[in-house]
Amino acid sequence: MLQDSFGRVATDLRVSLTDRCNLRCTYCMPPEGLEWLPKPELLTAAEIARLVAIGVERLGITEVRYTGGEPLLRRELTEIVTRTAALRPRPQISLTTNGIGLARLAGPLKDAGLDRVNVSLDTLDAGVFVRLAHRDRLPDVLAGLEGAAAAGLLPVKINAVLMRGVNEHEAVPLLSWCLERDYELRFIEQMPLDAQHGWSRADMVTADEILGMLSREFDLTPADPGERGSAPAELFLIDGGPARVGVIGSVTRPFCGACDRVRLTADGQVRNCLFATEESDLRGAMRAGATDDELAERWRVAVRRKRAGHGIDDPSFLQPARPMSAIGG
Q1: How far apart are CA 72 and CA 94, in angstroms?
Q2: Claim: this prediction has a pTM higher than 0.85
Q3: CATH architecture label of 12-327
């Protein structure tokens, strides 16, 4: 198992397939973009498949989520999903995406073995979308959501980040819109993971504020109180259910004590936390001829060093050098 020194066991693997993205969301990167990783530094599809297989078959990984950057930009994505679905025991396979291109790829990905998707959608206003993402692609995202639902990638989940003075007024409209379409909405507190290091706690719309806005329009009751486990989202029944909404308070309501996630970057580094300042290199060892057993042990050692929490509220907290696009969500 991938067990850390606090007894937590990692069973949820997040794999970044690329650091590239076709949007420039302000909470992630500057409008001009970033310098992408050189292609030779990226894991090949075969290397990704090998490391995922080690995680599943030797280390107890039960869920694999592919992320980016934007994972739909990875040409071998369908092949990677197919190889993951062939593993035994078969893990749950999901994808976090901005939805651009999903209308075309949802069917092939479902056929390859993808179970479900999380799509980022912060606004329903085309003008606000351009302000946030610096690209006029809202229709493509909406089409991607429709394609995912039509392909049976259910439940279709939506991730939304609210920013003060930008889109916080859309909390209720976003939820109403999702309810009409049977999408499951998750609001996520803005985290200090932007490349510009411009994050400010004052600009972050907190989980308490989000719940306050929603409660003025909907009756919210905790879903399965006390049984959240390792799930990042606190779930609430809407007007008695069965529809639900989630709030992920990564900053103000951290869930580090039950964290079961481990991350693999697009260039083959193990990260124990989005906010980790240390990484453990699997790519170098793999390319130097390490066996599967040796790679598995390196991975175990890396996870044993996982810290107790992200420490955002600690005065010594340092934002990680890598932005979200290079870490994977």
Answers
A1: 12
A2: yes
A3: Alpha-Beta Barrel (3.20)
